[in-house]
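Memo to structure team: turn this sequence into structure tokens by end of day. - J.P.
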Amino acid sequence: MLRFALAVFAGPALALAQLAPPEVPRPPRSEGWLVDAIAATVNDSAIMLSELRTLAAGPIRSAQQQVGQLSAQEQSLIMRRELAALIDKHRMAQSVKSLGVLTPDQVEQLLRSELQRDQEEMRRDLGSTLELGRAMQRQGRSWPTYEREQRADKLYLFAREFAVNRRLARQINLYVTPRMLQQAYDENRARFVRPANAKVAQVQFTGSQALADATAAAAIWVQEDLSPRQLADRFPGSIALPELGAGSLANPALRTFALAGPAGAVSAPTPGNGVVLLARVTTFVAARNGQFADPDVQMELRKICEDRVRLEFEAQAMGRARLRTEVWQSPGMRGS
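Reply from structure team:
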């Protein structure tokens, strides 16, 4: 009797189990997609990995154009270098409120004013607030996002203005003294007092048609900016010679021609040692005898000295900024 009851109750359950759809196995739990990450922080300001990659893309492309494909280690080195520059920028931006030129509230007010002016200019260029919103949407950004992106850049510019430019304008005469100008002149004398110098490309012609070929080649070289090899390829039997400095030219006539300049000048066919030479000045630096008291020299010296003072002020400002900021870097972005 008990066995019959169990069979009665088990029968419907078994039928339902046979009619139910087979259980679909659950897919493994997704770990998600890495959208962005924090590469470093400077105080409470985060440097995102996406921002770092965007900045490093240009230097990486330039390096690849010069030397070919970069290894992962070489690209990582460029990334770390760009991150160091970003950290220094954020350090300066963070320090602007402690420079003592403006109060923190005044700095924030100045920042809001700059951002509002940016918004007005963009709205004017696009025609309306609606078009500005659409432009932001196409870029996948909003105005608050734009403000966050611009904050560090603008605060960095404020810090440079307060810590370097204004200080330079007030104190430049205290640093750029006649003694400093004289020292700069002595250190850069070769820049102000120098003989003429030039580099020359040459093509050598041989055979019975050498003079005629050199004459025809000279007319072409005046009109077309060709390399020596490209010119030599047009005249069978001619040879492109390595580029030489004027002082290394064995032919005195060509040496005199080269030192007379200017760049791009083409010599007359010049016979010598059974061949005919044709030369073209590729680079030329005119002679100069600039004395310390010359007005032009004084202007250049002042520019040299001001640049030195500016670098000194920037180094001092960065030193103070480093003392006032705490930096954390992602373990993956730290150098070995």
